[in-house]
Amino acid sequence: xxxxxxxxxxxxxxxxxxxxxxxxxxxxxxxxxxxxxxxxxxxxxxxxxxxxxxxxxxxxxxxxxxxxxxxxxxxxxxxxxxxxxxxxxxxxxxxxxxxxxxxxxxxxxxxxxxxxxxxxxxxxxxxxxxxxxxxxxxxxxxxxxxxxxxxxxxxxxxxxxxxxxxxxxxxxxxxxxxxxxxxxxxxxxxxxxxxxxxxxxxxxxxxxxxxxxxxxxxxxxxxxxxxxxxxxxxxxxxxxxxxxxxxxxxxxxxxxxxxxxxxxxxxxxxxxxxxxxxxxxxxx
Length: 284
Hints:
- It contains 3 helices and 20 strands.
- By secondary structure, it is α+β, with helices and mostly antiparallel strands.
- The protein folds into 2 domains: about 1-165, Beta Barrel (Lipocalin); about 175-280, Lipocalin (Beta Barrel).
- The strands form 2 sheets. Strands 1, 2, 3, 4, 5, 6, 7, 8, 9 and 10 form a 10-stranded antiparallel sheet that branches. Strands 11, 12, 13, 14, 15, 16, 17, 18, 19 and 20 form a 10-stranded antiparallel sheet that branches.
- It starts with a helix and ends with a strand.
- About 35% of the residues are buried.
C-alpha cells in the first residue's frame, strides 16, 4: 500500500497532461524515500542465499507495448520508453521523463523493483498517458520472462504488463542525433517546437550539425566516456524567429561546456564536469 501511495504522488507531480506551449523545464529529480542500492552481482535468491547470475544486466530494452484498461497498447514510436538494469540500479525513460530506482532478483524469474525517482518535464497529453500507464505497470512487476531478444515483465498473477525489445547499442560517432533538450543556462533543460530542428553528428574528430537555423561545426576529442568539444563556429544566417536565435546561443554555450557523454537506451546525453545535462539527443 505504501508503494502505491508513493507512486501516486510521483505520477501526479511528473505527468501533467497540459501540452506545453513554451519552454519546458526538465531534469528536476524527485527522489523517493528509502531508495536502496542493491548490487545486482550479489543479488540473492530464495534458496540458500547463493549469488545468482543476473540475466537482465547486459542489455538495454525499448518498450514495444504496455497494458491498459483496454488491453495491450503499442508504445509511441517517436517517444520510446526504455529500461536498463545495471549494478542493482534500474532506470530509463518513460518517453518523456527519466526515472531511477533499484531492483532485486528474487530467485528463478522473480524480480522486485523499488519505487522510482522521476524527473519533472511536463509531457504532452499523449506522452503523459503512456508515462502514467508505464509507471503504473512498473509498480506491479513481480516476474520477468526472457525470450531471445524480447523481455516481458509480469505481475504477481503472471499477467504480462510490459513488453520490451532488445536494443542494439548505438555509438557516438556512427549515429545521427536529433536534439530533444537544451540547457537554458539557468538550471533547466528545455524543449519547444524548435528543439527537434537541431541535430548533431560526430565523425572522425569533426562535429557537424544544425542549430535549427545555422549550420554548426567544431572539432572534438573522445577518450572513453570523456568528450571535449573545441570552439564551435556557425554560419551567420539571420534566424527568422527570436526563439531560434535564443536556441542557437544555448546550444553553442552548452557544447563548449561538455566534458562527458552517456548513451542509454538509444539516447545521448552530453553533460558538463558537474554532471549537469547540457544537451539531450535521440536517434531520429
